[in-house]
Design goal:
By secondary structure, this protein is an all-beta fold. The protein is built from one helix and twelve strands, in the order αββββββββββββ. A twelve-stranded antiparallel sheet has the order 6-5-4-3-2-1-12-11-10-9-8-7.
Length: 204
Amino acid sequence: MRPVHRPAPTTLALLLCACAHAPATPAHPAAASVPTLPADSAAAYFPLAVGNQWTWLDRSPTTPAGTAPRRTVRILSRDAEGYFVDSDKGALKASGACVQDRLRRLLCAPFTVGRTWASVVSVTSTEHYEIAAVGETTRVPAGTFDACVRVRARNRAGPETESLLEITYAPGVGPVRIETFAVSKGVAAPQVRAELESYRVEGK
């Protein structure tokens, strides 16, 4: 699962493990309460509130045919620093134009293709982020979502290798597709693919 170092933003990275989890009670997208935030707000593309919940299906190339392990992450509380803490002990908050965890900025507005930023996660590791696409339509088991933003993150893993992560965010929903690749000598090999199956967004 970890042949090379790769960006691992918040506990969403934990859903990449292939262990199966019991499915959450399906949440109907129409029942979701969409936050009343500006369309170009990072917080609008990753709504954070206690009780919000996402379930992803593991559709990685290594997943056995006919199976689709699930992983559910639910926000349980908000700490004194304003971070929303989830069931996998991850922590996220909206800060300024970005949504971030304790080490990195994951999604930053304004959403303009080619916009970049970087997060230094250690003395030897810097993650480079880029808005790869805006206005995409993304189809996953949870539904079809318009106006999606796709973020690409790169991290050098060696002289000729790097890890690449792409997360597609839907407004009012959060991450709907997560993919990782190992890139060696310019050739990208798919590693992990997770797609949103259901979600519950309560908002505040």
